[in-house]
């Protein structure tokens, strides 16, 4: 099992913690991580874009000029795609961009993402994040003490003070064990976990 240092909010070492290899020490599957990221980004798309084809634009009911003898190229409608105001060729229509992924694959991808952060020394464990009130300055001080830049802060349960304190800090995002995902883990340089969050993750995913 991998051993990681546990820090307090002042950035001082207060102990060590063993991480469960079933979650934080798996063989990294880059393909599943990539698939999970593609799935999440695709599923966020609304798919509501729409443009009109030549059969849907108004006008163009008659031939603009006769077939021969004008010196112009032959034209059948002023709403053909080559005309200004004409229809769009292969116009986009509302569609569903959903990408499906098996539950076991999603779990394996998340484990791979967490393992990669452990191997890169980009996973920081803090004994607790107990903020007396919602203050951005206080949260920034804690992250500076932990040397966590562009951080994803994961707590075991929803903590209003942590969420409100972090939401105005650039490149910092908060999540709970239930809402964390592969894309957010990979997007941020550092993952900050509370001890309770680590225990909860190991309980759910081990």
In spatial order, strands of the major sheet run 2-1-3-6-4-5
Radius of gyration from the CA trace?
27 Å
Number of domains: 2
Identify low-pLDDT runs. none
Distance between the termini: 13 Å
Quick one: CATH class of the largest domain? Alpha Beta
CATH fold-level topology of the largest domain: Ribosomal Protein L4, Chain: A
What is the strand content? 15-25%
- Please count the helical segments: 7
Describe this structure in words.
The structure is a single chain. Helices cover 33% and strands 15% of the residues. The chain is of the alpha/beta class and 206 residues long. The protein folds into two domains: 2-45 and 101-205, Ribosomal protein L4/L1 (Ribosomal Protein L4, Chain: A), CATH 3.40.1370.10; 48-96, no CATH class. The longest helix is centred in the middle third of the chain and has 17 residues, at 103-119. The protein has helices spanning 21-24, 30-43, 103-119, 136-145, 160-166, 182-187, 195-205; strands at 2-7, 13-19, 123-126, 151-155, 173-176, 190-194. The chain starts with a strand and ends with a helix. The protein has a six-stranded mixed sheet with strand order 2-1-3-6-4-5, with helices on both faces. It is elongated. The mean pLDDT is 92.
């Amino acid at each position: 099992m991998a051993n990681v240092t546990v820090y307090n909010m002042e950035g001082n070492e207060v102990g060590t913690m063993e991480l469960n290899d079933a979650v934080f020490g798996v063989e990294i599957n880059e393909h599943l991580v990539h698939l999970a990221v593609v799935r999440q980004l695709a599923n966020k798309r609304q798919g509501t874009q729409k443009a009109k084809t030549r059969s849907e634009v108004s006008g163009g009911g008659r031939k603009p000029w006769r077939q021969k003898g004008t010196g112009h190229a032959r034209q059948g409608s002023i709403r053909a795609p080559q005309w200004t105001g004409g229809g769009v060729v292969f116009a986009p229509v509302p569609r569903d961009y959903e990408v499906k992924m098996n539950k076991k694959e999603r779990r394996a991808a998340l484990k791979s993402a967490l393992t990669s952060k452990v191997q890169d020394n980009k996973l920081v464990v803090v004994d607790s994040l107990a903020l007396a009130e919602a203050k951005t300055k206080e949260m920034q001080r804690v992250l500076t003490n932990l040397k966590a830049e562009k951080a994803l802060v994961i707590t075991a349960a929803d903590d209003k003070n942590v969420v409100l304190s972090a939401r105005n800090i650039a490149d910092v995002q908060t999540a709970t064990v239930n809402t964390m995902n592969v894309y957010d883990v990979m997007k941020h340089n550092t993952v900050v976990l509370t001890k309770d969050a680590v225990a909860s993750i190991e309980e759910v995913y081990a």
